[in-house]
């Protein structure tokens, strides 16, 4: 971006074209689907799925994080269309902060879901105590606090920049590379790589437990497998490209020997990876649907509520005879 680029006029500005056309379209789609979808999810959990189970508490917190992120995107769409930031440096920092707060909050919520599911499947005898609602609530509060601590230093690193009488709200990796380099590495290792290892470890043990289970053909076990695959896909498809390209973007700004075309190519790939990281909101909507039959029934009951008023009791209430470890499976 701007003053951080060198030799910016002697090669094709592919990154600028992608930023001008790709980002507004992608952010608009994510914003509309994210706001409508997650608002509907939260309403369904509030109206149709009470009382909540442990998995429901995690899902609602994840939906809130997705909704906050999706609500911040229209501001970015306006910026990339007009190419001029008019809301001041504080709002610039706040909007960029929202993206990363959502990103690392989502990573930790999905990690919590993986850990709780591991306990439910691999250690069902301990699940009755460990999966109590108070522990789930504490875990979700911890996620919000840890994410805030992880991302807070970013507020002092993001800046606006004047360029050709226009103001630019710089994304995190386009700020001073000397400032963001080590913090970016620390954030990648502790905010992404470590949770990814925990998720892989959890689902490796879950797969082994399901494979040796005599009830491995039950629908609930199949849902666990599908959910496990979905979360791993989100970690690899959505989060991995962004973290790799963010590091390469900062590295390209640090090394003066990098050619203009190579720098612009890396920047273009980094721009492509940013909405990809936000697409986890789409996968999360599928996650709610796959979480169990009760959410699907509640969804259709909500959509057709006028003709199904008398049938919502089954959806709202969970049978008391359900085993504790099923709390994270259904």
UniProtKB/TrEMBL annotation:
Highest taxon above the source species: Eukaryota
Subcellular location: Cell membrane
Transmembrane segments: 25-47, 59-81, 101-123, 135-160, 180-203, 224-245
Keyword Heme: no
GO terms, molecular function: G protein-coupled receptor activity
GO CC terms: plasma membrane
Membrane topology of this protein: Multi-pass membrane protein
Boundaries of every G-protein coupled receptors family 1 profile domain copy: 37-288
One family name in Pfam for this protein: 7tm_1
Keyword terms of this UniProt record: Cell membrane, G-protein coupled receptor, Membrane, Receptor, Transducer, Transmembrane, Transmembrane helix
Keyword Translocase among record annotations: no
Family matches, as InterPro entries: GPCR_Rhodpsn, GPCR_Rhodpsn_7TM
Protein name in UniProt: 2-oxoglutarate receptor 1-like
Organism of derivation: Carassius auratus (Goldfish)
Taxonomic lineage from the root: Eukaryota, Metazoa, Chordata, Craniata, Vertebrata
């Amino acid at each position: 971006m701007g003053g951080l680029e060198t030799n910016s006029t002697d090669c094709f500005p592919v990154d600028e074209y992608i930023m001008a056309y790709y980002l507004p379209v992608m952010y608009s789609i994510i914003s509309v689907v994210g706001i409508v979808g997650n608002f509907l999810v939260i309403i369904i959990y509030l109206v149709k799925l009470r009382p909540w189970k442990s998995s429901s508490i995690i899902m609602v917190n994840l939906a809130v994080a997705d909704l906050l992120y999706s609500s911040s995107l229209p501001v970015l769409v306006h910026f990339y269309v007009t190419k001029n930031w008019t809301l001041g440096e504080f709002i610039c920092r706040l909007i960029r902060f929202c993206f990363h707060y959502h990103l690392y909050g989502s990573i930790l919520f999905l990690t919590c879901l993986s850990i709780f599911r591991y306990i439910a499947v691999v250690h069902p005898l301990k699940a009755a105590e460990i999966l109590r609602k108070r522990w789930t609530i504490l875990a979700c509060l911890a996620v919000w606090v840890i994410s805030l601590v992880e991302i807070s230093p970013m507020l002092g690193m993001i800046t606006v920049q004047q360029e050709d009488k226009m103001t630019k709200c710089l994304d995190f990796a386009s700020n001073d590379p000397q400032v963001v380099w080590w913090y970016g590495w620390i954030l990648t290792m502790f905010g992404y790589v470590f949770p990814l290892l925990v998720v892989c470890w959890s689902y490796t043990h879950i797969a082994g437990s399901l494979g040796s289970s005599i009830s491995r053909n039950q629908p609930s076990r199949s849902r666990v497998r599908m959910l496990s695959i979905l979360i791993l896909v989100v970690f690899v498809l959505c989060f991995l490209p962004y973290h790799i390209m963010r590091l390469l973007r900062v590295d390209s700004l640090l090394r003066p020997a990098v050619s203009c075309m190579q720098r612009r190519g890396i920047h273009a790939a980094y721009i492509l990876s940013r909405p990809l990281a936000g697409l986890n909101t789409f996968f999360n909507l599928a996650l709610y649907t796959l979480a169990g039959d009760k959410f699907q029934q509640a969804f259709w009951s909500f959509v057709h509520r006028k003709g199904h008023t008398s049938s919502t009791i089954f959806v709202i209430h969970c049978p008391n005879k359900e085993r504790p470890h099923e709390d994270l499976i259904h």
